[in-house]
Amino acid sequence: MLIKDIGEQGLLRILQKFCPAEIVGDDCAVLPTNPNQSLAVTTDMLVDGVHFSDRTTGPYYAGWRAAAANLSDLAAMGARPLAVTVALAVSADTAVDWVEEFYRGMTACLQEYHTPIAGGDVVRSPVVTIAITALGQVEENRTICRSNARSNWGIVATGFHGTSRAGLELLLNPEFGQNLEKGDRISLILAHQQPKPRLDVLPILWEILDAAGAMEPPLSPPLAKGGKQESNSLSPPLSKGGPGGVNSPIAIAGMDSSDGLADAIVQVCRASGVGANVDRTKIPIPHSLSEIVSAQKALDWALYGGEDFELVLFLPIDRAKLLVERIGDGAAIVGITTECADIWLSDSSGICPDFRLEIDRGFQHF
Amino acid sequence: MLIKDIGEQGLLRILQKFCPAEIVGDDCAVLPTNPNQSLAVTTDMLVDGVHFSDRTTGPYYAGWRAAAANLSDLAAMGARPLAVTVALAVSADTAVDWVEEFYRGMTACLQEYHTPIAGGDVVRSPVVTIAITALGQVEENRTICRSNARSNWGIVATGFHGTSRAGLELLLNPEFGQNLEKGDRISLILAHQQPKPRLDVLPILWEILDAAGAMEPPLSPPLAKGGKQESNSLSPPLSKGGPGGVNSPIAIAGMDSSDGLADAIVQVCRASGVGANVDRTKIPIPHSLSEIVSAQKALDWALYGGEDFELVLFLPIDRAKLLVERIGDGAAIVGITTECADIWLSDSSGICPDFRLEIDRGFQHF
User: Which of A89, A134, A237 minimises the CB distance to B47?
Assistant: First the structure.
């Protein structure tokens, strides 16, 4: 059954099932907000053939991944999700099943984080396109900016990296990784198909920072500001505080690793005007990767593969250690920030020579 | 010069000029909000060849219209704009000039209403596509819902209708309307190219309603609820108040006339479970239309043409009269709501027979 068989009203009836029951259909959705919290907002656009493909993901997982990517952006700012809006462009020849499965996957992910779809738009286009805007709320003094890192802080990766890229490879090449145990295989594929935004890290983080913060005065603004923007995100923090973008910056900086671990480390270091020593032996890579690719390839996927949707958090060493202990499950301190602006990938085992971490290998749209 | 000539980073540098200077580029934009106000959110997606065309609008006006349509949705809910996000899909062969002009038009409109672009996304697609999400804030007891109208209220159109459709006709057929005075011609074309969202109506409306409300108790919930949703909007009000979607509904209902005056009247009546008598002689149609088309055609454009982006407000007669006086400039009471669910288009001059107002003539996407 195609969209043209059911028409616009038929399509809307299907999509409304995925929105909260109290739908009335006004010009806007109206959402109650918590006082004394700022609004965090992020937008992603996904295009058929560019950002998803039935060959590897299928509509259910494309929907899940779209929701997860947006919730991960909220988590990366320290924000709890409030709602998302979804704009959908489909052609008259798009299968109704495809659209329903996409919404099923998207809402399955959103429901795990108690996030409703608060409206959207449905239009016609020759190319299936989805734009998701996620809204969250964050306490003003808990906003996690990229520009707030200082030297001699720990760099925490909240979980394994390279898993999503490995899962993609398994999906693309069914003959690849035949030697993997079934459980490991499924786990890598799910890392690609159903990534989990790390909203679960935030309560642990606040607990550690609140306990530490009670014992010391707030940070002064950072000394240096870099700021070359390499991501294709255009999101500016608009809060009117100091250079860190917050009124009274807490001792935390970070972003998510959606564009790769290397990208996250380099972006935060540049925005904060610090450098880093990253230890390749500390990067959390699942053991199963060693059974299917070389150590160099596994490192490559961990650094540049992207879409692991972990958080990369920069904070004073003592708190970084506490955080890693509390999160467990692959979380690790992968490096230390430095005053010098260079970012080195070193090897504490002494096997590989040090080299400068670059991010010009990231995905370019044009 | 094409996008592929300047690459993703070149494109981002251009687009960042249109965002506030304090851009840092985090995973989300962070916006301060007013306490005791709800968040209003609306999303529109625009597709090249479907929603805009260089033949009639050009990128500057396409950008203006996209911004105006979203701000109009906020105005229709009683919300003041906070910010918008913009997701843009372009191909490598899209002209850089096109993108810059689109952003110029969009920001020109946004700046008139002090609304920043708070980030977005840039991706590759074979079809130029833009998704705009507008965020606004509205006091909880001032939310203008569709479902709140009662019988014997006045239906106010805040300005002329049919103008945008007439302007489009002038752009499509340059030989059409040669008899028009130059000023009238320009004014109709501008109504299509640079519509003004009626955010200016809100302060007048609150002043009238506050003065009236001080003299009487709040409304009880509406008696009947319709609710067949005909628009392609999927925006549910999520506030947890009574059936009207607000905690203590004020005596107002409404929406904007982006899909035509007839659509607005029918949608609000259905959502509120009331009917209406609309007087065709009261519908504000500019005199210049009588010089280019028949009275019937002019009425047709006013009712079904769409994109006039006026507000269609339902409120008790005394306040409706005050509102029309204060707005001036085409504003008129076009009808009265009734207990019976039918919506009649009558003719107080007695020339035309009454007929039922329908909206199955509206734009269908599929």
Answer: A89
Class for domain B3-140, per CATH?
alpha beta
Tokens of B202: 């809100």
Nearest residue in chain B measured CA to CA from A270: B24
State whether residue A298 sits within 8 Å of chain B by CB.
no
* Chain segment B230-286, per-residue pLDDT in tens: 445 555 444 433 333 344 468 999 999 999 999 999 999 999 999 999 999 999 999
Number of neighbours of residue B58 by Cβ within 10 angstroms: 18
Q: Return the domain boundaries, chain B.
A: 3-140, 143-356
- CA A32 to chain CA centroid, Å, is 26
Q: How confident is the model at residue B228 (pLDDT cuts 50, 70, 90)?
A: very low
Residues 144-163 of B with CB under 8 A from A: 145-147
Which of A23, A119, A147 lies nearest to residue B41, judging by beta carbons? A119
Q: Does domain A3-139 have CATH number 1.10.3720.10?
A: no
A283 burial (CB, 10 Å; 0-12 / 13-18 / 19+) is buried
Say yes or no: B104 contacts chain A, CB-CB below 8 A.
no
Q: Round to whole Å and give the CA distance between A238 and B257.
A: 32
What is the C-alpha separation between B252 and B5, in angstroms, rounded?
53
Q: Do B28 and A77 touch (CB under 8 A)?
A: yes
d(CA A31, CA A17): 19
Asked if the C-beta of A99 comes within 8 angstroms of chain B's C-beta atoms, the answer is no
Report how far residue A139's alpha carbon sits from residue B32's, in angstroms, rounded to the nearest whole number: 10
So what's the pLDDT on residue A120?
A: 87
DSSP, residue by residue, B256-285: E-TT-HHHHHHHHHHHHT-EEEEEGGGS--
Put simply, the answer to whether B237 touches A22 (Cβ < 8 Å) is yes
What average pLDDT does the segment A276-283 reach?
96
Which residues in chain A touch residue B129, judged by CB atoms under 8 angstroms apart?
A: 45, 47, 89, 125, 127, 129
Fold of A143-356: Phosphoribosyl-aminoimidazole Synthetase; Chain A, domain 2 (3.90.650)
Q: Which secondary-structure segment (H or E) carries A68?
A: helix A58-77
Contact of B117 with chain A, judged by CB distance below 8 Å, is answered with yes
Question: A93 — contact with chain B (CB < 8 Å)?
Answer: no
Give B40 to chain A, closest Cα distance, Å.
4
Residue B329 in tokens:
């400039």
Query: Residue A124 is nearest to which of B30, B40, B365, comparing CB atoms?
Result: B365
User: Would you give the distance in Å from CA A212 to the centre of its chain?
Assistant: 26
- The tally of CA atoms less than 13 A away on the side-chain side of residue B130 is 25
Query: What are A178-208's pLDDT values in tens digits?
Result: 999 999 999 999 999 999 999 999 999 999 9
- In B211-270, the residues whose Cβ lies within 8 Å of chain A are 227, 229-240, 245-246, 255-256, 267
What end-to-end distance do the CA atoms of chain A give, in Å? 35
Residues A56-72 as b/e (b if ≥16 CB within 10 A, e otherwise) read bbbbbbbbbbbbbbbbb
ipTM of the complex: 0.87
Side chain identity at B349, as an amino acid letter?
A: S
CA distance B283 to chain A (A): 22
Chain A contact present for B178, CB below 8 A = no
